[in-house]
Design brief:
Involved in the biosynthesis of ADP-glucose, a building block required for the elongation reactions to produce glycogen. Catalyzes the reaction between ATP and alpha-D-glucose 1-phosphate (G1P) to produce pyrophosphate and ADP-Glc. It is built from 8 helices and 29 strands. The chain is α/β, with parallel strands linked by helices and 389 residues long. The chain is elongated and about 65 Å long. The chain starts with 6 loop residues before the first strand and ends in a 12-residue tail after the last strand.
Length: 389
């Protein structure tokens, strides 16, 4: 057995994120670049660091290569602790054959032995594909104070959006009396954020029961939480009032990125007391050419800008050649924009090359043009227009 930890975090990072289309064709959603310097998973890992949780199991599944190499030892997030650290936990073969993770609860169930190695009192279950800053230690204090079996982080959502979430009803103390997964007619707008703190003995018993139920989807929202509620366990709602986004669609991904360019952005990536860490610091300083124009944009390390960029986000190692103009766009790591190209309201994937004189998007259109990773686009290819996501 490893050194005992009070709380172990289990980070679910195996999601495909199919609604992001070309952006997740070759990588998992948590590995998608965001805000120039980061990848989406950076925010959950940084939350663990900022909450003094130093043992994190990262459960990977869909196209994990980039995610695995990016996380590495966890040193970038100060999570290479001698008594804890980051552990990549893909599905694995067993004496009975093994299988892919069948649901969120099944993913944790298949890693019971990992958790038992640390003999924790509590297990924090989080997702690797949400954008937010949160001190989990405050939620853990709330969990302890109420002697809870399960605490669910919740936030109020607009009533018209409530049917998209797990919705719960709680009394004045936070004790949960009802939970419904994506109800058609919600009777509350208190939505689960998919952030859970379990007392480990309760969770372990629930996972073992759920694994034996052949009709279960092995999902926390659909199965485990209703089961615990039906057994009379003590479930509490912890209200979160900060910024939280699930960038699950192209529109939400684009708009959330662009919010960072607002002077009063609701999501502050610059604050010191809740820093966001990343593993993208290996590039040289960015270079702005003598004739370049840079207006209201984020420009990361390794970029070389010789053309114009207006209200755009340049991830690390992006090159903008002479005469090119990029407007209202997001360029992911390693993207290259050729001479005299015109890019409007577009997302350009990692390592993609946009050739000379190419025009993508239109200043008169609200559609978002999306180019996937490792693509090469020449002007001659788009005379009939570019597909939009």
């Amino acid at each position: 057995m490893m050194r005992q930890q009070e709380c172990v975090a289990m980070l679910l990072a195996g999601g495909q994120g199919s609604r992001l289309g070309a952006l997740t064709k070759k990588i998992a959603k948590p590995a998608v670049a965001f805000g120039g310097k980061y990848r989406i998973i950076d925010f959950s890992l940084s939350n663990c660091t900022n909450s003094n949780i130093n043992t994190v199991g990262v459960l990977t599944q869909y196209k994990p290569l980039l995610l695995n190499s990016y996380i590495s030892t966890g040193a970038a997030w100060d999570l290479d602790d001698a008594y804890g650290g980051v552990f990549l936990l893909p599905p694995y073969a067993t004496e009975t054959g093994g299988q892919w993770y069948q649901g969120t609860a099944d993913a944790i169930f298949q890693n019971i032995d990992f958790i038992d190695n640390y003999d924790p009192q509590y297990v924090l279950v989080i997702s690797g594909d949400h954008l937010y800053k949160m001190d989990y230690s405050l939620m853990l204090d709330f969990h302890k104070k109420n002697d809870a079996d399960l605490t669910i982080s919740v936030m109020e959502v607009p009533w018209e959006d409530a049917s998209r979430f797990g919705i719960l009803t709680a009394d004045d103390t936070g004790r949960i009396s009802k939970f419904s997964e994506k109800p058609k007619n919600p009777d509350s707008n208190l939505a689960s954020m998919g952030i859970y703190i379990f007392s480990w003995p309760v969770l372990k018993e629930a996972l073992l029961k759920d694994s034996l139920n052949s009709s279960s989807d092995h999902d926390f929202g659909k199965n485990v939480i209703p089961m615990l509620l039906g057994e009379g366990k003590k479930l509490y709602a912890y209200t979160f009032t900060g910024y939280w986004k699930d960038v699950g669609t192209i529109d939400s991904y684009y708009n959330t990125n662009m919010e960072l360019l607002n002077p009063d952005s609701p999501f502050n990536i610059f604050e010191e007391n809740m820093r966001v860490f990343s593993n993208s610091n290996i590039y040289p300083p960015h270079y702005i050419g003598p004739d370049a124009v840079v207006e209201n944009s984020l420009v990361c390390n390794g970029c070389r800008v010789r053309g114009e960029i207006h209200h755009s986000i340049l991830s690390f190692d992006v090159h903008i050649e002479d005469g090119a103009r990029v407007t209202d766009s997001i360029l992911l790591p390693g993207a290259k924009i050729g001479k005299n190209a015109r890019i409007f309201r577009s997302i350009i994937g990692e390592q993609s090359v946009i050739g000379e004189d190419t025009v993508l998007g239109s200043p008169d259109s609200q559609e978002i043009t999306v180019i996937g990773d490792n693509e090469t686009i020449a002007a001659s290819q788009i005379k009939g227009g570019v597909s939009h996501e």
